[in-house]
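INFO  loader      accepted 1 record
INFO  loader      residues=243
INFO  predictor   begin
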Amino acid sequence: MYLLFDLDRTLWDFEGNADITFRSMFDEYHLGDLCHTDLHTFHAKYREINNMLWDMYRNGTLTKEVLYIQRFVLPLQHFGMHDCGKLARELGDYYVLEGPKQQGLMPHARELLEALTLRPHPLAIITNGFSEAQLPKMRTSHIDHYFKYFFLSEELGYMKPDRRFFDEALKRLGATANECLVIGDDIEVDILGAHNASIGQIYYNPTGVDISDRAFRPTYEVSDLLEVLPIVDQLTAEMKKNL
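INFO  predictor   done
INFO  writer      dumping tokens
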């Protein structure tokens, strides 16, 4: 059985690492003085805009290049800076360079990966993140060696939750959907995407997001990454019985 892990917010602590990077960037570029606001307010506006732009990027209505710049241009403009293209580019470069240097992982991520080394399941990463950032993140946080396969949307040509992303990953693995299990934190991007590709899913939901109104249910749901282990062991035992 192949275990396909999302990276950001599933294994790598995206929010915690982003907060550290953003605080450093805010101070280094004196954004408080330039924008006449505080870190919390500026970061909140950035997250709002960045999430909107990423939705457009996943939907194919925005290019990576535009996202890269606009996610900083728009918050700078919101706080009164209008001739800000050069600064926005510098902020984008800083964020992509410095963010992957952070090493924070989600609780029990390393323990889970270490335990999985004792089990005969190849591990893969499936991510929509920028290729120049995702692999450095894994190297810096010392988890890259746990994985045999790396599937990045820019290389596959499709983005989660597009079924073609998952189909292409299966093709490169030489595996069927029944031989795979997706573990991810995003109910739309990871879990619904895998569901639509007929791949089993483990929804990692540490904050207890209510999904009772969804038209489908994840195959499994966990609040702690260590809860993945008994599920994997159960599935392994069932697969052996069916041989």
